[in-house]
Structures are given as C-alpha cells and as structure tokens.
Amino acid sequence: MIRFEGRLLLFDIEGTVSPLAFVREVMFPHARKALRGFLDHQADRPDVVDVLGQMARDAGRNSVKNWCPHPIGSGAAKEWFIREFEHLMEGDAKLTGFKQLQGLIWEEGFRSGALQATLFPDVVPAWQKFLSSGLLLQIYSSGSVQAQRLFFAHTQEGDLTPMLSGHHDTTRGSKKEAASYATIALAVGMAPGEILFVSDIVAELDAAREAGFATALAVRPGNPEADPSSHAILSTLEEIILPA
Ligand SMILES: [Mg+2]
C-alpha cells in the first residue's frame, strides 16, 4: 500500500498492468500461427518487402532472392520461409528484420481484433478512480511509444488510450538510469516528487527514487519473487491510496 498526494501516476506495462505471461503465451504463439496468412495477404506491402530484405541482410545475404533457395513466390519458398521464421522464434532471435516482422504481424493482429491485450482486472477500475480524482496516467515502457499505443488501443476492455495522457519509451533513456526519470519529469513539467512510478523491477524503482520519484513495486501473479528493498508494495492498483 502507498499513500500518494502527487499528480501523475507512471506505469510500467509487463508484470505491472499486464501479466508477464501475455507476451509468452499470447503474443509469441500468435506470431507463429498468423505468419502463413500474413504472407498470403500482406507480403506485397512495401513495408513487408523492406522487412524481408532486412531479414536477408541479417542472414548475410544481399537480397531475398539470394537468401531463399527456392523461386520467390513459389509454394516451396513460402514453406521454407515459414520454417526459417519458426527456427528464429525457437531461438528467441533478436535480429532486426525478424523482430520487425513480428511487430508487423502483431500490429495486424491488434488491428484485426485477432489479438487483444490482457490487463489485470483491477487496472481499469483503479484508473477510472484515479482519473476522476484528477490524477494523470502515463506509461513508461521499453516497448516503443507506437507499440504501447497499439497495445492500449486494443485491450480486452476496449480502447484505453483516452485514459492515458502520455507515453514514454527508451528514447527517454534506460529504465534503470535516474537521468531518464529526471527527463520524464522535465517533459511533463512536474517536480519529481509529484510522480509515482509503479514497476515490477526493483532496479527501475531504485533509479526512479534516485531522481526523486515516489515508487511502488507491483507484486503480481506470475512475477518472479523480488526483494522490495524499501519500496512500497502493491498487489493491486487499488492499494494506491489518495487523499480523502
Ligand atoms: Mg515490467
């Protein structure tokens, strides 16, 4: 529980407002399952063509034609590519083109409704209460601002983007550096002490506190056990207590 009298609540996403398992159990299986249909219907899009070219370069080839052992556009080429993609998924590859293709498939999945973000059940009711008390709600996540907007626009509880007044990503700096939090405070025009940062990672909270933020550790089902150090602990967002 934490008593908070400031003006802005800043939330991490994974392990804080959304289960860690969502990425592993929903996002990754979706990318694997949706790839074939994505190639059937989207492979001619210029951004998809660019990403396939990047994947060829990541593999050390100068073009898709010089990468794929089968004639481009053939069924054999598609099956080969699907196996290649699954192989990269199994190895949890961090290659640029592969990650970009995953991102495009997820984007398509969110837009089509095949993919919906899962939030912990206390999040939306607590956010409504905070907003009606005049607080601002913002996000700081290592996922890009664009990916964050996509995520909150397509949740199981609908489009939550109107509830959020700002998004921050690693263009503000690493979540484990105090300077990043100082930059966020400056960007929103508030004193650090007016901001509460909630995350499941103690090192991020340490950095936020160093910058003068209030901090609270999200302890959620599925999170690895963390020593809260001296940070407040929340098992739901309802444990953020506002002044009466
Ligand atoms: Mg997290």
Task: Briefly summarize what is shown.
With 244 residues, the chain is of the alpha/beta class.
Characterization of this structure:
The chain has 244 residues and is of the alpha/beta class. 45% of the residues lie in helices and 12% in strands. It is built from nine helices and eight strands. It has helices at 21-42, 46-58, 64-67, 75-90, 96-112, 123-132, 145-153, 178-188, 202-210; strands at 2-3, 8-11, 136-140, 166-168, 195-199, 214-218, 232-234, 240-241. α8 crosses α9 (202-210). The longest helix is centred in the first third of the chain and has 22 residues, at 21-42. It is elongated and about 70 Å long. The mean pLDDT is 95. The protein binds magnesium ion. Magnesium ion binds next to loops.
List the helices and strands and how they pair.
Blueprint: E1 2-3, E2 8-11, H1 21-42, H2 46-58, H3 64-67, H4 75-90, H5 96-112, H6 123-132, E3 136-140, H7 145-153, E4 166-168, H8 178-188, E5 195-199, H9 202-210, E6 214-218, E7 232-234, E8 240-241
Parallel strand pairs: 1-8, 2-3, 2-5, 3-4, 5-6, 6-7
Helix pairs in contact: 1-4, 1-5, 2-5, 5-7, 8-9
The chain binds magnesium ion (MG).
Provide tags for this entry.
244 residues; alpha/beta; Rossmann fold; Transcription Termination Factor Rho, Rna-binding Domain, Chain A, Domain 1; 2 domains; six-stranded parallel beta sheet; elongated; binds magnesium ion
Which segments are poorly predicted (pLDDT under 50) over 5 or more consecutive residues? none
User: Could you please say which CATH topology of the largest domain applies here?
Assistant: Rossmann fold
Strand order of the largest sheet: 4-3-2-5-6-7
Mind describing the biggest β-sheet?
A: 6 strands, parallel
Oligomer: single chain
| Percent range for β-strand residues | 5-15%
* Tally of separate domains: 2
Distance between the termini: 15 Å
Sheet/helix structural class: alpha/beta
Number of helices: 9
User: Which CATH top level class of the largest domain fits?
Assistant: Alpha Beta
Shape: elongated
By CATH, the architecture of the largest domain is named 3-Layer(aba) Sandwich
